[in-house]
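Subgroup meeting minutes
Present: P.N., E.W., G.H.
Scribe: E.W.

1. P.N. recapped why we're keeping a running log of single-chain structure predictions: easier to compare across weeks, and new members can see raw inputs and outputs side by side.
2. G.H. added today's entry (193 aa).
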Amino acid sequence: MLKNLFVSEVRLKILELMLLSNKKEVHVRGIVRAVNTEINAVRRELDNLVKTGIFKRRQSMNRIYYSVDRLNPFYNELLNLLAKETGLAKKILQKKSDLGDIEFAVFCPAYFKGRESTALDVDLFIVGDIEVEALKKLVKEQESKSGRELNFSVMTSTEFKSRKRTGDQFINRVLSQSRMMLVGDEEKFYSIS
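Output recorded in log:
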């Protein structure tokens, strides 16, 4: 879908590389190798991304490094779009019917920003009647690919509503963290009682 929104496939590859990786700064030749495209096409797209303010450029000696400006007002929206187009988020959207009846699926954007999860963090929260083994398989694939643990939690709709009504700490934490809705309406997710 994003290929249809973005004019340049090279630009899309660069955005995926820079927004969905843990790399803070990448040398232009590193970007060329990672996206497997000619250097002139990469430089042209990097110039465009710097002009939009999404990327920053830094020169050190004869090398030019690029990084994402995480303070850019479009950063979070771009991250959410790209995350839904790749990895586990994309697989959940593609295999939604195989996973059961999903009422809400919520990702924590901090996972995509490279945060290492602790036992208290929930990277993926799903409400509904879910085929947990099928979800575990997708999560394991993501963990193998990324080399990072992904914490997830699954609840039935009844349990979610009950725990929300009682002011459950876990649910309050999930509701208070930033989130990216994969499935369901965010206002309904937050206001359900």
